[in-house]
Amino acid sequence: MIKWLFENRSKERSNSYMYYAAIEAGHLHVVQYLLDIKEPFIFDPDFGSLLDYSIFCNQLEIAKLLHQHNIIESEDTPIDYAALNGNIECLKWLNENTTVEASVQAMNNAALNNDLEVLKWLQQHRTEGCSDDIIQIVSRNGHIEVIQWLYENQSNVLQSQQSIDEAIAYGHLELAKWLFEKRNQQPSEDAIDYATMNGKESEIRNLQMIKWLHDNHPNVGCTEQAILNAIKHGHFETMKWLRENRTEISILKTLSLDHLYTYGVETIDWLSENFIIDWKTVLREAIRRDSSEIVDFIIKKNLTTIDVLDKKKYFSIFSKWMQKGVFSDESIDISINVLDYPLEDIEMIEFLLDKLDYPLVELKKFEEIINSTDNSNISKTLLNELIKEEINSIVGNSDRSDIPNEQIRKKIKVEH
Predict the structure, then answer these.
(1) Angle 88-97/60-68 helices, nearest 10 degrees?
(2) InterPro entries per the record (predicted)?
(3) 256 versus 209: which is more confidently predicted?
(4) How many CB atoms lie within 10 A of CB 278?
(5) DSSP label of 45
C-alpha cells in the first residue's frame, strides 16, 4: 500500500508522518522499509525525536533499529519514559548504549506505578533521585511499601511535608496508621472532613477511617462539610454515624444543602427528620435534573410545593412525567393546575382535564381565557370543546352533540 501511494500520490509525501505512525503502532518492518528507501523524516515538536518517541511508545526494538542507523538525536528524557513503562530492559539498554538524559521524574514515575523493581534499579544505576514532594503524591495511591522504601533510601523526602492527610482523604487506612505510628505524623484538625471527601472509595473504607480518627485522635474535629460530603457521595451509614457520634454534627439544626437529585428517598426522608433544609431549592434542582422520584417524594412528604413559575419553566418535564404516570394522584393534585400551561399544548390539556377534577369555577375561568387569546381557530375550537365536555360532565348534562367527532379531533391533533 505504501509503495502504491508513493507511485500514485507522491505529492502528499511532503506532509507525511509515517515514521511516527509506524513507531506508535509498533511496525518494525515499516520503519525498516522507510529507512531502506531513505524516506525523509519530518520532525514534529509535539512528538519529539524518533528515538524519544520510540521509547515513549515502549518500542525498544524500533529504538535499537534507529540507533543502528545512527538516528540517536534526543531532546527529552527517554529514561523517564522507560521508567513510566516499567521496562527495565529498556532502562538497561538506554543506560549502556546512549547518553540520553533523565530527571527525578523517572523515579517519580516508578513510585506512582508502585514499581519497586524499577525504583531499586534507578537507585543503583542513576543519580537523579526523586522529587521532594513525591511522598505526598504517592500517599494518594496508598503504595505503602514504596513509601517505606523511599523513606529508607531517599534522604530528601525526610524533609517533605506530612502526607498523612493525603492517605486519609483517599481512604488508605493502613498507610495512615503507619505514617502516624512510624513517622509520627499527626492528622490535621479537619481530618474527618478529609475522610469523607473521596466518593470513589467504598463507604465501608471511609467509615473505618472516620472511626479510627474518632477513637485515636481526640483533638481531630470536623465541620458541616463532613456530612455534606457524605450526602454528596450517597454514604447513608456515614451520615447517620456522624449525626449520632460527632458533637459538631449532632448540634446542627440546619444544613446548607442545594441538591439531592442523585440520591434515594431514604436519604431525603432521614434528612427531613433531622435537619431544617431549604427544600424549595432542593426541589427546583431535582426538577431541573429530571429526578421525578425525588420530586414526587418531596411533594408527598409535604416538604414544599412547586410554584407556578417552576411549573411553567419546566413544563416539558412535568408533561413527560405525568403522561408516563410517574406522579401519584396526590402529587398531581398538589403540583398541577391546567391554567399554568401553554394554551397551545392541546394534548397536555386534554390529559389534565381527563386526569384531574377541576372546580366548575376554574373551568369557566379557563374557557374565558381561551376565548380572549389569539390562538388559531382550530386551537380555540378544540380547547373550547374540551372545556365544554368537562363542564357538561360536572353539571350532569348528558347532551354530547356538541363534542367534535373523532375524525375532527384526530385532524386537529395531527395539525398540532
Answers:
(1) 20
(2) Ankyrin_rpt, Ankyrin_rpt-contain_sf, SecEffector_AnkRepeat
(3) 209
(4) 14
(5) T
| Coil/strand/helix, residue 44 | strand
DSSP 140-177: TTT-HHHHHHHHHH-GGGGGSPP-HHHHHHTT-HHHHH
Residue 97, amino acid: N
Say how far apart CA 312 and CA 351 lie, in whole Å: 17
Q: Is residue 106's pLDDT more than 60? A: yes
Residue 197 CA to residue 228 CA, distance in Å, equals: 9
Residue 64 has pLDDT above 60, yes or no: yes
What string of DSSP letters covers 291-348?
-HHHHHHHHHTTS----HHHHHHTHHHHHHHHHTT-S-HHHHHHH--GGGS-TT-HHH
Query: Which residues fall within 8 angstroms of residue 397, CB to CB, at 6 or more apart?
Result: 391
Q: What is the CB neighbour count within 10 angstroms for residue 312?
A: 12
Quick: pLDDT tens for 277-300. 888 888 888 888 878 788 888 888
* CA 172 – CA 194 distance, rounded (Å): 12
375: helix, strand or coil: coil
> What is the average pLDDT value for the chain, to the nearest integer?
83
Grid cell of 49 as nine digits: 525525536
List the alpha helices (DSSP H) in 154-264: 164-169, 173-182, 191-195, 203-216, 224-232, 236-245, 247-250
What angle separates helix 292-300 from helix 265-274, to the nearest 10 degrees?
A: 40
- Residue 44 pairs in a beta bridge with 48
pTM: 0.72
| Dist CA 24 CA 97 (whole Å) | 22
CA distances (Å), origin 302, targets 292, 335, 364? 15, 11, 29
Query: What does the pLDDT average to over 7-34?
Result: 90
Q: How far apart are CA 392 and CA 276, in angstroms?
A: 46
| Mean pLDDT to the nearest integer, 95-108 | 96
- Judge contact between 415 and 378, C-beta under 8 A: yes
Confidence of residue 410 (pLDDT cuts 50, 70, 90): very low
